[in-house]
Amino acid sequence: MTSSQSLLLSKSLSTLSISKEATSDYIPKYFDVGVNITDKMFDGYYHGKKYNQNDIINVLKKSLIHHVNDILLTGSSLIESKNTIDIVKKLRNDDDHLNDIPNLYSTVGVHPCTVLEFENESENENEDINTYIEKHLQNLENLIIEGLKLNIVKAFGEIGLDYDRLHYTPMDKQLKYFQIQLELATKFNLPLFLHMRSAVDDFIKIIKPFIENNKLKNKNLLVHSFTGNSNELIKLLDLEKNDYKIFISINGASLRDQSTIDSLHLIPINRLMIETDSPWCEIKKTHPSYKFLTKSPNKFYPSDYENYEKITSNNKINQVLTQQSKKSPSLTLFEFLPIPIIKHDKFNKFQYMELFNETPLIKSRNEPCLIGLVAEVVSKILAIEPEILIDNCYKNSMEVFGEMDTIERT
Ligand SMILES: [Zn+2]
User: Does the keyword Hydrolase apply (predicted)?
Assistant: First the structure.
Protein backbone atom coordinates (compact mmCIF):
# COMPACT_ATOMS: atom_id res chain seq x y z
CA MET A 1 0.00 0.00 0.00
CA THR A 2 1.34 3.44 -0.87
CA SER A 3 1.33 6.17 1.75
CA SER A 4 -1.40 8.06 -0.10
CA GLN A 5 -3.50 4.90 -0.14
CA SER A 6 -3.09 4.34 3.58
CA LEU A 7 -3.89 7.97 4.20
CA LEU A 8 -7.06 7.51 2.21
CA LEU A 9 -7.93 4.37 4.12
CA SER A 10 -7.41 5.92 7.53
CA LYS A 11 -9.37 8.96 6.39
CA SER A 12 -12.26 6.85 5.19
CA LEU A 13 -12.22 4.91 8.45
CA SER A 14 -12.25 8.06 10.58
CA THR A 15 -15.10 9.70 8.68
CA LEU A 16 -17.32 6.70 9.19
CA SER A 17 -18.70 7.97 12.45
CA ILE A 18 -20.54 10.70 10.53
CA SER A 19 -22.86 8.15 9.02
CA LYS A 20 -24.03 6.87 12.40
CA GLU A 21 -27.10 9.10 12.26
CA ALA A 22 -27.87 7.76 8.82
CA THR A 23 -28.46 4.30 10.19
CA SER A 24 -31.72 3.58 11.98
CA ASP A 25 -32.69 0.93 14.47
CA TYR A 26 -33.63 -1.35 11.62
CA ILE A 27 -31.89 -4.73 11.73
CA PRO A 28 -32.06 -6.67 8.48
CA LYS A 29 -32.78 -10.38 8.38
CA TYR A 30 -31.50 -12.33 5.40
CA PHE A 31 -32.34 -15.76 4.00
CA ASP A 32 -29.56 -16.83 1.63
CA VAL A 33 -31.36 -19.33 -0.61
CA GLY A 34 -28.24 -20.57 -2.42
CA VAL A 35 -25.00 -21.66 -0.76
CA ASN A 36 -22.76 -24.50 -1.99
CA ILE A 37 -21.27 -25.59 1.31
CA THR A 38 -19.63 -28.75 -0.04
CA ASP A 39 -17.62 -26.75 -2.57
CA LYS A 40 -13.90 -27.41 -2.44
CA MET A 41 -13.13 -23.76 -1.69
CA PHE A 42 -14.82 -24.06 1.72
CA ASP A 43 -12.55 -27.03 2.29
CA GLY A 44 -9.45 -24.93 1.55
CA TYR A 45 -8.83 -26.18 -2.01
CA TYR A 46 -7.95 -23.77 -4.78
CA HIS A 47 -7.01 -24.98 -8.27
CA GLY A 48 -6.82 -28.54 -6.97
CA LYS A 49 -4.38 -27.78 -4.15
CA LYS A 50 -5.19 -27.64 -0.46
CA TYR A 51 -4.11 -24.35 1.13
CA ASN A 52 -6.03 -24.25 4.39
CA GLN A 53 -8.39 -26.06 6.70
CA ASN A 54 -12.10 -26.40 6.14
CA ASP A 55 -13.51 -23.17 7.60
CA ILE A 56 -17.27 -23.55 7.14
CA ILE A 57 -17.91 -22.98 10.85
CA ASN A 58 -16.22 -19.59 10.67
CA VAL A 59 -18.01 -18.79 7.41
CA LEU A 60 -21.35 -19.61 9.07
CA LYS A 61 -20.54 -17.64 12.23
CA LYS A 62 -19.63 -14.65 10.09
CA SER A 63 -22.96 -15.02 8.28
CA LEU A 64 -24.98 -14.74 11.47
CA ILE A 65 -22.96 -11.72 12.65
CA HIS A 66 -24.00 -10.03 9.40
CA HIS A 67 -27.70 -10.89 9.83
CA VAL A 68 -28.01 -14.03 7.72
CA ASN A 69 -30.64 -15.85 9.73
CA ASP A 70 -31.36 -18.76 7.40
CA ILE A 71 -29.48 -20.56 4.65
CA LEU A 72 -30.71 -23.05 2.06
CA LEU A 73 -27.72 -25.18 1.09
CA THR A 74 -27.64 -26.45 -2.46
CA GLY A 75 -27.32 -30.12 -3.33
CA SER A 76 -26.12 -30.59 -6.89
CA SER A 77 -25.42 -34.32 -7.04
CA LEU A 78 -26.50 -37.36 -5.06
CA ILE A 79 -23.30 -37.45 -3.04
CA GLU A 80 -23.15 -33.67 -2.52
CA SER A 81 -26.78 -33.65 -1.39
CA LYS A 82 -25.98 -36.44 1.05
CA ASN A 83 -22.86 -34.68 2.32
CA THR A 84 -24.79 -31.44 2.74
CA ILE A 85 -27.48 -33.17 4.80
CA ASP A 86 -24.75 -34.81 6.91
CA ILE A 87 -23.14 -31.42 7.58
CA VAL A 88 -26.46 -29.94 8.70
CA LYS A 89 -27.20 -32.99 10.84
CA LYS A 90 -23.83 -32.72 12.54
CA LEU A 91 -24.07 -28.98 13.16
CA ARG A 92 -27.59 -29.23 14.54
CA ASN A 93 -26.38 -31.79 17.06
CA ASP A 94 -23.39 -29.71 18.05
CA ASP A 95 -24.27 -27.77 21.22
CA ASP A 96 -21.31 -25.46 20.64
CA HIS A 97 -23.02 -23.95 17.63
CA LEU A 98 -26.65 -23.77 18.66
CA ASN A 99 -26.74 -19.99 18.71
CA ASP A 100 -23.86 -18.75 16.64
CA ILE A 101 -24.72 -20.00 13.15
CA PRO A 102 -27.81 -19.48 10.92
CA ASN A 103 -30.65 -22.01 10.56
CA LEU A 104 -29.54 -24.45 7.91
CA TYR A 105 -31.61 -26.39 5.37
CA SER A 106 -30.78 -28.32 2.24
CA THR A 107 -32.01 -29.22 -1.22
CA VAL A 108 -31.61 -32.64 -2.84
CA GLY A 109 -31.20 -33.05 -6.58
CA VAL A 110 -28.82 -33.44 -9.51
CA HIS A 111 -27.62 -30.32 -11.34
CA PRO A 112 -27.78 -30.38 -15.18
CA CYS A 113 -23.96 -30.30 -15.31
CA THR A 114 -23.80 -33.42 -13.13
CA VAL A 115 -26.62 -35.58 -14.54
CA LEU A 116 -24.21 -37.95 -16.29
CA GLU A 117 -23.88 -39.53 -12.84
CA PHE A 118 -27.17 -41.25 -13.71
CA GLU A 119 -25.16 -43.19 -16.31
CA ASN A 120 -22.01 -43.92 -14.36
CA GLU A 121 -20.86 -47.38 -15.09
CA SER A 122 -22.51 -49.95 -12.97
CA GLU A 123 -20.33 -52.15 -10.80
CA ASN A 124 -22.29 -55.09 -12.08
CA GLU A 125 -21.43 -55.82 -15.73
CA ASN A 126 -24.73 -57.52 -16.38
CA GLU A 127 -26.77 -54.61 -15.13
CA ASP A 128 -28.24 -52.58 -17.97
CA ILE A 129 -28.25 -48.81 -17.94
CA ASN A 130 -31.94 -48.49 -17.19
CA THR A 131 -31.58 -50.58 -14.08
CA TYR A 132 -28.72 -48.34 -13.00
CA ILE A 133 -30.77 -45.18 -13.61
CA GLU A 134 -33.63 -46.67 -11.58
CA LYS A 135 -31.24 -47.41 -8.74
CA HIS A 136 -29.83 -43.90 -8.78
CA LEU A 137 -33.33 -42.42 -8.72
CA GLN A 138 -34.23 -44.71 -5.82
CA ASN A 139 -31.17 -43.48 -3.91
CA LEU A 140 -32.22 -39.88 -4.49
CA GLU A 141 -35.73 -40.70 -3.33
CA ASN A 142 -34.45 -42.42 -0.19
CA LEU A 143 -32.24 -39.44 0.58
CA ILE A 144 -35.18 -37.05 0.24
CA ILE A 145 -37.31 -39.20 2.55
CA GLU A 146 -34.50 -39.27 5.12
CA GLY A 147 -33.93 -35.51 4.79
CA LEU A 148 -37.65 -34.80 5.19
CA LYS A 149 -37.81 -36.87 8.37
CA LEU A 150 -34.91 -34.84 9.75
CA ASN A 151 -36.62 -31.62 8.68
CA ILE A 152 -33.51 -30.66 6.73
CA VAL A 153 -34.63 -31.03 3.11
CA LYS A 154 -36.73 -28.06 2.02
CA ALA A 155 -36.58 -28.24 -1.78
CA PHE A 156 -36.04 -30.55 -4.70
CA GLY A 157 -33.09 -29.41 -6.83
CA GLU A 158 -31.07 -28.05 -8.14
CA ILE A 159 -32.39 -29.46 -11.39
CA GLY A 160 -32.80 -27.85 -14.79
CA LEU A 161 -30.91 -27.00 -17.96
CA ASP A 162 -27.58 -25.25 -18.53
CA TYR A 163 -26.76 -24.65 -22.19
CA ASP A 164 -23.83 -22.41 -21.27
CA ARG A 165 -21.98 -25.50 -20.09
CA LEU A 166 -22.76 -28.19 -22.64
CA HIS A 167 -19.14 -29.36 -22.33
CA TYR A 168 -20.11 -30.97 -19.02
CA THR A 169 -23.34 -32.56 -20.22
CA PRO A 170 -24.72 -32.71 -23.77
CA MET A 171 -28.14 -31.24 -24.40
CA ASP A 172 -30.01 -34.52 -24.93
CA LYS A 173 -28.86 -35.85 -21.54
CA GLN A 174 -29.75 -32.61 -19.78
CA LEU A 175 -33.25 -32.75 -21.26
CA LYS A 176 -33.69 -36.43 -20.38
CA TYR A 177 -32.71 -36.11 -16.72
CA PHE A 178 -34.56 -32.84 -16.18
CA GLN A 179 -37.72 -34.64 -17.25
CA ILE A 180 -36.94 -37.75 -15.18
CA GLN A 181 -36.18 -35.74 -12.06
CA LEU A 182 -39.38 -33.73 -12.46
CA GLU A 183 -41.28 -37.03 -12.49
CA LEU A 184 -39.57 -37.89 -9.20
CA ALA A 185 -40.46 -34.46 -7.83
CA THR A 186 -44.16 -35.20 -8.29
CA LYS A 187 -43.94 -37.71 -5.42
CA PHE A 188 -43.06 -35.05 -2.83
CA ASN A 189 -44.55 -31.91 -1.41
CA LEU A 190 -41.38 -29.93 -2.00
CA PRO A 191 -40.81 -26.65 -3.82
CA LEU A 192 -38.52 -26.88 -6.84
CA PHE A 193 -35.08 -25.28 -6.86
CA LEU A 194 -34.40 -24.75 -10.56
CA HIS A 195 -31.30 -23.87 -12.53
CA MET A 196 -31.70 -22.38 -16.03
CA ARG A 197 -28.98 -20.90 -18.21
CA SER A 198 -29.52 -19.95 -21.86
CA ALA A 199 -32.18 -22.64 -22.26
CA VAL A 200 -35.46 -20.88 -21.61
CA ASP A 201 -37.54 -22.38 -24.43
CA ASP A 202 -36.60 -26.01 -23.74
CA PHE A 203 -36.89 -25.36 -20.02
CA ILE A 204 -40.46 -24.13 -20.44
CA LYS A 205 -41.37 -26.92 -22.85
CA ILE A 206 -40.41 -29.53 -20.25
CA ILE A 207 -41.78 -27.92 -17.11
CA LYS A 208 -45.03 -26.48 -18.51
CA PRO A 209 -46.97 -29.78 -18.67
CA PHE A 210 -46.19 -30.39 -14.98
CA ILE A 211 -47.80 -27.04 -14.17
CA GLU A 212 -50.71 -27.22 -16.62
CA ASN A 213 -51.60 -30.74 -15.58
CA ASN A 214 -51.16 -29.84 -11.93
CA LYS A 215 -48.70 -32.65 -11.34
CA LEU A 216 -46.61 -31.03 -8.61
CA LYS A 217 -47.88 -31.19 -5.03
CA ASN A 218 -45.99 -28.08 -4.04
CA LYS A 219 -46.78 -25.10 -6.23
CA ASN A 220 -43.74 -22.99 -5.47
CA LEU A 221 -40.94 -22.96 -8.04
CA LEU A 222 -37.73 -20.98 -7.67
CA VAL A 223 -35.57 -20.21 -10.70
CA HIS A 224 -32.35 -19.41 -8.91
CA SER A 225 -29.33 -17.37 -10.04
CA PHE A 226 -31.24 -15.71 -12.86
CA THR A 227 -28.89 -14.44 -15.58
CA GLY A 228 -31.27 -13.99 -18.52
CA ASN A 229 -32.85 -10.94 -20.14
CA SER A 230 -36.34 -9.40 -20.08
CA ASN A 231 -37.71 -11.76 -22.74
CA GLU A 232 -36.60 -14.81 -20.80
CA LEU A 233 -37.95 -13.42 -17.57
CA ILE A 234 -41.35 -12.69 -19.09
CA LYS A 235 -41.52 -16.27 -20.42
CA LEU A 236 -40.63 -17.70 -17.01
CA LEU A 237 -43.11 -15.55 -15.08
CA ASP A 238 -45.75 -16.46 -17.67
CA LEU A 239 -45.61 -20.04 -16.40
CA GLU A 240 -47.77 -19.04 -13.45
CA LYS A 241 -51.06 -20.93 -13.72
CA ASN A 242 -53.23 -23.08 -11.45
CA ASP A 243 -51.97 -21.25 -8.33
CA TYR A 244 -48.37 -22.07 -9.18
CA LYS A 245 -45.89 -19.36 -8.23
CA ILE A 246 -42.62 -18.66 -10.02
CA PHE A 247 -39.99 -17.08 -7.77
CA ILE A 248 -36.73 -15.64 -9.05
CA SER A 249 -33.54 -15.32 -7.01
CA ILE A 250 -30.79 -12.85 -7.71
CA ASN A 251 -27.08 -13.06 -6.92
CA GLY A 252 -23.89 -11.34 -8.07
CA ALA A 253 -23.99 -13.20 -11.40
CA SER A 254 -27.46 -11.77 -12.04
CA LEU A 255 -25.96 -8.32 -11.68
CA ARG A 256 -23.04 -8.61 -14.08
CA ASP A 257 -24.88 -7.96 -17.37
CA GLN A 258 -26.83 -4.82 -18.07
CA SER A 259 -29.49 -6.83 -19.93
CA THR A 260 -30.24 -8.84 -16.77
CA ILE A 261 -30.13 -5.72 -14.60
CA ASP A 262 -32.62 -4.06 -16.97
CA SER A 263 -35.01 -6.99 -16.60
CA LEU A 264 -35.16 -7.04 -12.79
CA HIS A 265 -38.00 -4.54 -12.49
CA LEU A 266 -40.25 -7.18 -14.10
CA ILE A 267 -40.03 -9.41 -11.02
CA PRO A 268 -42.97 -8.73 -8.69
CA ILE A 269 -41.75 -7.93 -5.17
CA ASN A 270 -43.67 -10.94 -3.82
CA ARG A 271 -41.70 -13.24 -6.15
CA LEU A 272 -38.20 -11.97 -5.43
CA MET A 273 -35.48 -13.68 -3.39
CA ILE A 274 -31.76 -13.05 -2.96
CA GLU A 275 -28.84 -15.46 -2.60
CA THR A 276 -25.06 -15.50 -2.81
CA ASP A 277 -24.56 -18.86 -4.59
CA SER A 278 -21.31 -18.76 -2.63
CA PRO A 279 -18.47 -19.51 -2.96
CA TRP A 280 -19.33 -18.45 -6.53
CA CYS A 281 -21.13 -15.50 -8.12
CA GLU A 282 -19.54 -12.64 -6.17
CA ILE A 283 -20.02 -9.03 -7.22
CA LYS A 284 -16.83 -7.99 -9.01
CA LYS A 285 -15.25 -4.59 -9.59
CA THR A 286 -15.79 -5.01 -13.33
CA HIS A 287 -19.57 -5.52 -12.96
CA PRO A 288 -22.01 -2.66 -13.53
CA SER A 289 -23.45 -3.46 -10.07
CA TYR A 290 -20.25 -2.54 -8.25
CA LYS A 291 -20.85 1.20 -8.42
CA PHE A 292 -24.00 0.86 -6.29
CA LEU A 293 -22.12 -0.47 -3.26
CA THR A 294 -21.33 1.71 -0.28
CA LYS A 295 -19.18 1.20 2.75
CA SER A 296 -20.94 -0.04 5.88
CA PRO A 297 -22.48 0.87 8.27
CA ASN A 298 -25.61 1.27 6.22
CA LYS A 299 -29.12 -0.18 6.22
CA PHE A 300 -27.75 -3.45 4.85
CA TYR A 301 -25.03 -3.83 7.47
CA PRO A 302 -26.09 -1.55 10.33
CA SER A 303 -24.45 -3.27 13.25
CA ASP A 304 -21.08 -2.99 11.59
CA TYR A 305 -20.98 0.46 13.06
CA GLU A 306 -19.81 -1.09 16.32
CA ASN A 307 -17.26 -3.21 14.54
CA TYR A 308 -15.91 -0.19 12.74
CA GLU A 309 -15.77 1.75 15.98
CA LYS A 310 -13.83 -1.04 17.58
CA ILE A 311 -11.49 -1.25 14.68
CA THR A 312 -10.93 2.46 14.20
CA SER A 313 -10.27 2.90 17.91
CA ASN A 314 -7.89 -0.02 17.97
CA ASN A 315 -4.42 1.47 17.87
CA LYS A 316 -2.79 -1.75 16.82
CA ILE A 317 -5.03 -2.13 13.79
CA ASN A 318 -4.61 1.50 12.79
CA GLN A 319 -0.91 1.20 13.20
CA VAL A 320 -0.74 -1.82 10.96
CA LEU A 321 -3.13 -0.31 8.42
CA THR A 322 -1.25 2.93 8.13
CA GLN A 323 2.32 1.74 8.52
CA GLN A 324 2.37 -1.23 6.23
CA SER A 325 5.57 -1.73 4.38
CA LYS A 326 6.81 -4.44 2.12
CA LYS A 327 8.54 -6.07 5.10
CA SER A 328 5.63 -6.27 7.52
CA PRO A 329 2.82 -8.78 6.99
CA SER A 330 -0.07 -7.18 5.19
CA LEU A 331 -3.47 -6.31 6.58
CA THR A 332 -6.21 -5.16 4.25
CA LEU A 333 -9.82 -4.57 5.13
CA PHE A 334 -12.56 -5.52 2.69
CA GLU A 335 -13.68 -2.42 0.86
CA PHE A 336 -17.26 -2.45 2.18
CA LEU A 337 -17.15 -4.19 5.56
CA PRO A 338 -14.77 -4.08 8.54
CA ILE A 339 -13.51 -7.58 7.82
CA PRO A 340 -9.93 -8.33 6.85
CA ILE A 341 -9.49 -9.84 3.39
CA ILE A 342 -6.60 -11.98 2.28
CA LYS A 343 -5.47 -14.19 -0.61
CA HIS A 344 -6.11 -17.91 -0.18
CA ASP A 345 -2.43 -18.78 -0.02
CA LYS A 346 -1.90 -16.28 2.83
CA PHE A 347 -4.89 -17.33 4.92
CA ASN A 348 -2.93 -19.61 7.24
CA LYS A 349 -0.30 -16.95 7.77
CA PHE A 350 -2.73 -14.23 8.84
CA GLN A 351 -1.18 -12.64 11.90
CA TYR A 352 -3.91 -10.40 13.22
CA MET A 353 -6.61 -12.89 14.11
CA GLU A 354 -6.68 -11.77 17.75
CA LEU A 355 -7.59 -8.24 16.68
CA PHE A 356 -10.80 -9.26 14.95
CA ASN A 357 -13.81 -11.23 16.06
CA GLU A 358 -14.17 -12.93 12.69
CA THR A 359 -11.86 -14.69 10.28
CA PRO A 360 -10.77 -12.92 7.09
CA LEU A 361 -12.64 -13.09 3.83
CA ILE A 362 -10.71 -14.80 1.07
CA LYS A 363 -10.20 -12.88 -2.18
CA SER A 364 -12.51 -14.11 -4.98
CA ARG A 365 -14.38 -16.46 -2.65
CA ASN A 366 -17.96 -15.40 -2.03
CA GLU A 367 -19.58 -15.99 1.37
CA PRO A 368 -23.15 -15.79 2.70
CA CYS A 369 -22.19 -12.78 4.86
CA LEU A 370 -21.91 -10.79 1.63
CA ILE A 371 -25.60 -11.17 0.76
CA GLY A 372 -26.20 -7.62 1.99
CA LEU A 373 -24.21 -6.40 -1.01
CA VAL A 374 -26.69 -8.12 -3.34
CA ALA A 375 -29.53 -6.55 -1.36
CA GLU A 376 -27.97 -3.10 -1.67
CA VAL A 377 -27.55 -3.30 -5.44
CA VAL A 378 -31.05 -4.71 -6.01
CA SER A 379 -32.59 -2.10 -3.71
CA LYS A 380 -30.91 0.70 -5.62
CA ILE A 381 -31.61 -0.68 -9.09
CA LEU A 382 -35.28 -1.19 -8.29
CA ALA A 383 -35.51 2.01 -6.24
CA ILE A 384 -37.09 0.11 -3.35
CA GLU A 385 -36.40 1.11 0.26
CA PRO A 386 -33.83 -1.27 1.80
CA GLU A 387 -36.20 -2.37 4.57
CA ILE A 388 -38.97 -3.19 2.11
CA LEU A 389 -36.68 -5.08 -0.22
CA ILE A 390 -34.97 -7.07 2.54
CA ASP A 391 -38.16 -7.89 4.43
CA ASN A 392 -40.00 -8.99 1.29
CA CYS A 393 -37.17 -11.25 0.15
CA TYR A 394 -37.06 -12.82 3.62
CA LYS A 395 -40.82 -13.27 3.72
CA ASN A 396 -40.89 -14.86 0.24
CA SER A 397 -38.06 -17.23 1.15
CA MET A 398 -39.79 -18.25 4.38
CA GLU A 399 -43.04 -18.78 2.52
CA VAL A 400 -41.33 -21.25 0.18
CA PHE A 401 -38.57 -22.83 2.26
CA GLY A 402 -39.42 -22.00 5.86
CA GLU A 403 -41.20 -24.25 8.30
CA MET A 404 -43.98 -25.99 6.49
CA ASP A 405 -46.09 -29.10 6.31
CA THR A 406 -43.87 -31.58 4.56
CA ILE A 407 -46.20 -34.33 3.55
CA GLU A 408 -44.22 -37.36 2.60
CA ARG A 409 -45.02 -39.58 -0.33
CA THR A 410 -48.60 -40.64 -0.77
ZN1 LIG B 1 -27.48 -23.17 -10.16
Answer: yes
